[in-house]
């Protein structure tokens, strides 16, 4: 029985990954009050850290960010930051430490017409500043990501924070991807709430009716 229990525990440990995420240095550079009811255009450059952050996270983070901001009546649009070449502007100081110069201004400039058409009042930049890849599998690693909220009318940064994270996959790349994406998004949302940008409690959301849930699961 002891051997069976030990084997079960080992399998559980192998099926779990380690993700560490913390936010620090949050600063409200100018008081703009709540952004509830506003439209925010998001530029996420996280795909350059696909291996360090985890590919499954990138597949889920945009949807979760949209959902969480919508709970505070913030409408979200996205720029085409996904076109960024992961090796663009790469400076390699050590074999597995990579620093990037992201073409943020270039991509924003290409999207100014889209921002205006969308009616965005703010621009949210999510930009990796440092990536340290695993020396063994190439998957997982440490990362530093800056989140900056810019008022489009003045082009001033009004709020920013820094995400320090680490990811170690133990079995496969997409372990608990939805939960890990939620960990990163929830941390940023809490920092926004603490700064007064969002309602501290968020907006209440109602669960779908049984009929609606059934309809959603029924293929066309």
Structure commentary:
- With about 220 residues, this protein is an alpha+beta fold.
- It has a single domain, classed as Rossmann fold.
- It is about 35% helix and about 30% strand.
- The protein starts with a helix and ends with a helix.
Question: Which helices and strands occur, and which strands form pairs?
Answer:
Blueprint: H1 2-14, E1 18-28, E2 39-44, H2 50-53, H3 55-70, E3 75-78, E4 91-94, E5 97-99, H4 104-110, H5 112-118, E6 122-133, E7 141-151, E8 156-168, H6 177-194, H7 210-217
Parallel strand pairs: 2-3, 2-6
Antiparallel strand pairs: 1-8, 4-5, 5-6, 6-7, 7-8
Helix pairs in contact: 3-6
- Helix tally? 7
- Cα separation of the termini: 49 Å
For the record, what CATH class applies?
Alpha Beta
What is the name of the CATH topology?
A: Rossmann fold
Compute the number of strand runs.
8
User: Which secondary-structure class do the elements indicate?
Assistant: alpha+beta
Estimated radius of gyration: 19 Å
By CATH, the architecture is named 3-Layer(aba) Sandwich
Kindly report the average pLDDT value. 74
* SSE arrangement, N to C: HEEHHEEEHHEEEHH
Please describe the biggest sheet, giving its number of strands, its sense, and whether it closes into a barrel: 8 strands, mixed
């Amino acid at each position: 029985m002891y051997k069976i229990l030990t084997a079960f525990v080992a399998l559980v440990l192998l099926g779990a990954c380690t993700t560490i995420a913390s936010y620090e240095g949050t600063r409200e550079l100018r008081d703009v009050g709540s952004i509830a009811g506003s439209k925010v255009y998001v530029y996420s450059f996280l795909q350059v850290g696909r291996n360090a952050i985890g590919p499954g996270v990138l597949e889920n983070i945009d949807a979760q960010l949209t959902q969480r901001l919508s709970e505070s009546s913030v409408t979200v649009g996205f720029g085409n930051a996904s076109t960024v070449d992961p090796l663009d502007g790469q400076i390699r100081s050590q074999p597995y430490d990579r620093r990037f110069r992201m073409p943020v201004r270039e991509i924003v400039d290409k999207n100014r017409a889209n921002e205006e058409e969308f009616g965005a009042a703010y621009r949210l930049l999510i930009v990796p500043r440092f990536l340290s890849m695993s020396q063994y599998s190439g998957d997982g690693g440490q990362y530093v990501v800056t989140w900056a909220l810019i008022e489009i009318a003045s082009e001033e940064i009004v709020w920013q924070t820094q995400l320090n994270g680490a990811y170690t996959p133990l079995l496969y790349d997409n372990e608990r991807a939805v939960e890990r994406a939620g960990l990163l998004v929830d941390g940023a949302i809490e920092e926004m709430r603490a700064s007064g940008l969002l309602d501290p409690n968020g907006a209440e959301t109602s669960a779908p009716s049984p009929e609606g849930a059934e309809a959603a699961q029924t293929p066309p």
